[in-house]
Amino acid sequence: MNKDKSLSLNPRPTILVVDDLPENIHGLLEALKDDYGIMVATEGMRAVELAQGPTPPDLVLLDVRMPGMDGYEVCRRLKSDPRTSGIPILFVTIVEASIEKIRGFSMGAADFITKPFDIDEVRARVKTHLELSRLRRALEGRVKRLSEYRHATDVSNIVFRTDPHGVITFVNDAFVQTYGYTREEVIGKTSRILKDPDAAPGLHRELWNTILGGAIWRGTYSNLTKSGDVIYINNTIVPILDADGSIREFISTSVNVTHLIKQEELIKEQTTDALTGLPNRVKLMQDLADAGPSILGMINIDQFKAINDFYGLRNGDKVLLEIGERLQKMSGADAQAYRIGGDLFALLSKNGGDPGRFEQLIDRIIKHLESEAIDCGEDKINIRVTAGICSGADSAYTHAALALERARIERRDYLIYTDQMQIKSHYKDNIHWSQKIRSALADGRIVPFYQPIIDNRNGKVVKYEALMRMIDEEGNVIPPSFLGVAKRTRQYTALTRTIVEQVVKALPESEGEMSINLTVEDIIDANTVSFIAEKLSQPGVGSRIVLEITESEGIESYEEVRQFVNRMKGYGCHFAIDDFGSGYSNFVHLLRLKIDYLKIDGSIIMNIIDNPDSEVIARVIVDAARRLGMRTVAEFVGSAEIQAKVVELGIDFSQGFYLGKPAPQTLGTPRHD
C-alpha cells in the first residue's frame, strides 16, 4: 500500500521502475529495494498514471523499447506535465547509439544506463540523480522564498537606489505610489527632488556624512511628494561597498509613518492647553498614573473671575499666559507645570521628588507670583494664589484638591494634605456616595469591566479579571474610589453579589478563566458565601472562576478563610492572592490556604526596571511560587520594557494597561495579536 510522502510516514525516496520484462524488473528490485521504495509498471500508460497519481515517484528508471507506448513517449508526457516535469528520468536500454541518447536527452532525460547493467553503477547513478533532484528542489524553494520576500518588501516598504552622488537609479512600486512620481520622472534625478526645505536643519548633512563614511544611517524626517504634500518617513540607508571598500551605491528602505506622526500631533493637541501650551488635566492624570509615588501641588488664582470682569477677558488670558510661563520657568528640572482648569494650575514632581524641597518650591512660587505684578500694557495686575500639596501615589489629585480647598477656607497660602482633612470630608462623602451606590444597584449600573490577562509563554489572552465599576446617570464610568464608601456603609457584599451574577452570565460568551475580587467582608458574610456557592455549583461554572483575595486585607480569622477556600475549591474554583508582596507578615497563613496563583503587587512590577530591589523581590516570589506549585501573575504592566523583564523573570501571566485596559465586554474567545 502506497503512503502519502507528505506525511513523512516513509522517508525513503520512491523509484518507479518501468520495464516490460519481468527479469529486468526483478534485477532492479533486488538492487534497490533495501534503500528505496519501489513502484512497478510493465507498460507505458500505467507508468504515466502512476507518476501523475497522488504519490509521484522521486525518480523513474525507464526502459526505452516497450510494446505500445515506448519509453520516449512516456518521457515526453511526463516532461510536458508540470506535476511531473521535475522528476529525473534515467533510461535503461540496450541501445548505445549516440543518436538515441541525444533524442532522449532532448526530451529531458537525466541519464542513460546500458543493459546489461552493473548493479553498483545503477546504485551510484540513482543516488547521484536523487541528490541532484533534492538540491534542485531546495534551490527552487529558496528562489521562491526570496521572490516572496522581495515582493513583500516591495509592497510594504518604499525602496530606491542611488549612485554614490545621490542620482536615483531604481525605485519600486511603493515609491511610485507614495511620492506620485513615475519612474521616468525620478530616475536620473538626484534624491534632492524629494527634499523638504522645512526639514530639520542639519539633518541631511548628518545623513550624508554618515553614509559617505560607509556607515548605515537610520532616522525619521519629512519629504515632499510630487504634489507638494509633506510626508514623514522612517528611513534606513545602507551603503553598498565594492571589494576595495569604495561605495558602489546606496539603498534606501523606508516606511511612510505620516499617520503615526499625525496621531502623535493629535494626542499632543488633546493633552495640551491651547492658551498656555502647558500640558492639560488629561495629561496630568496620565502622568499621575505613570509616575507612581510623587508629589502634586495645585495652585489656584484667587478671585480670577473678578480679574476677568474688571480688566477684560483679553487681559485675563494674558494673566494666565504669564503665570504659565513663570511656573514652567521656576519649576525647572524639579517639576512639570500644567494648566488643569480655567484658573487652576498644577505642579507634579519629577522622579518622586523630595517633599521638603517641593514645599519650598511652592512657597517660592507663591511669593514670586504675588510680589511681581503682571504687565498687561496699561494695566499692572496684582494677583494672589492659594495652593494645596499632596505626597504619595494614592488619590493624589483628590487629596491635593482637598488640601487646596482647606487652604482657601483657612485663608492660608498653602496647606499639605493630612488624613484629618479626609476625616472631616468623610461624613458628607459617606452620605452622598451611599445614596449613589444604592441608586446604581437598583438601576443595574454596577457592572464588571474585563481586563485581559496574558499567558507569557505564547503572548495570548487566556483569561480576564472582572473589575467592579459604577456608571453614573449620564453614562460616565465612576473611579473605583466609591468602593471604600461601600465597605464603610456595609453595601459592599451586595456589590460583590451583582458582579458574581453578571460574570457567571457572561461565561458562555468567552473562554478561559474569569477572576473576581473578594474582600474579607464577602468571605465572612453568610449570605454572600451561600450566593457564591450556588453560582459555582452550576454546570461548567466552578472550574472557570478564580476568586482573588487581597493580601493587604485585614484578615483576622484565617480558619474562616481556609474553610471558605476549601468549600469553593470543592466546586472546581481556583484562588489567587492579589497584591502579593505588599506585606509579608501573613505569608505562612497564606501558604495554608492552598492558593493557585500569586498576583505580584503592582508597586513591585512598576519599579522593576529602575529599582534593583523590586527585581530581587520579584525573583524571590517567582522562585517561591514555583517551589510551592503556584503560578504567578504580574500586575500593572505599563510598558513593553516592563513586559520584557516580566517574561525574563519567568512570571507566568501578565496584566496591565500596556496589554489591555478594562473594558465593559470581553473580547470573546481569548486571543492576542
From TrEMBL:
<dbReference type="Pfam" id="PF00072">
    <property type="entry name" value="Response_reg"/>
</dbReference>
<dbReference type="InterPro" id="IPR029787">
    <property type="entry name" value="Nucleotide_cyclase"/>
</dbReference>
<dbReference type="InterPro" id="IPR035965">
    <property type="entry name" value="PAS-like_dom_sf"/>
</dbReference>
<feature type="domain" description="GGDEF">
    <location>
        <begin position="292"/>
        <end position="420"/>
    </location>
</feature>
<dbReference type="InterPro" id="IPR001789">
    <property type="entry name" value="Sig_transdc_resp-reg_receiver"/>
</dbReference>
<feature type="domain" description="EAL">
    <location>
        <begin position="430"/>
        <end position="673"/>
    </location>
</feature>
<feature type="modified residue" description="4-aspartylphosphate">
    <location>
        <position position="63"/>
    </location>
</feature>
<dbReference type="Pfam" id="PF13426">
    <property type="entry name" value="PAS_9"/>
</dbReference>
<dbReference type="InterPro" id="IPR000014">
    <property type="entry name" value="PAS"/>
</dbReference>
<dbReference type="InterPro" id="IPR011006">
    <property type="entry name" value="CheY-like_superfamily"/>
</dbReference>
<feature type="domain" description="PAS">
    <location>
        <begin position="145"/>
        <end position="214"/>
    </location>
</feature>
<dbReference type="InterPro" id="IPR001633">
    <property type="entry name" value="EAL_dom"/>
</dbReference>
<feature type="domain" description="PAC">
    <location>
        <begin position="217"/>
        <end position="269"/>
    </location>
</feature>
<dbReference type="InterPro" id="IPR043128">
    <property type="entry name" value="Rev_trsase/Diguanyl_cyclase"/>
</dbReference>
<dbReference type="InterPro" id="IPR035919">
    <property type="entry name" value="EAL_sf"/>
</dbReference>
<dbReference type="InterPro" id="IPR050706">
    <property type="entry name" value="Cyclic-di-GMP_PDE-like"/>
</dbReference>
<feature type="domain" description="Response regulatory">
    <location>
        <begin position="14"/>
        <end position="130"/>
    </location>
</feature>
<dbReference type="InterPro" id="IPR000160">
    <property type="entry name" value="GGDEF_dom"/>
</dbReference>
<keyword id="KW-0597">Phosphoprotein</keyword>
<dbReference type="InterPro" id="IPR000700">
    <property type="entry name" value="PAS-assoc_C"/>
</dbReference>
<dbReference type="Pfam" id="PF00990">
    <property type="entry name" value="GGDEF"/>
</dbReference>
<dbReference type="Pfam" id="PF00563">
    <property type="entry name" value="EAL"/>
</dbReference>
<protein>
    <submittedName>
        <fullName>EAL domain-containing protein</fullName>
    </submittedName>
</protein>
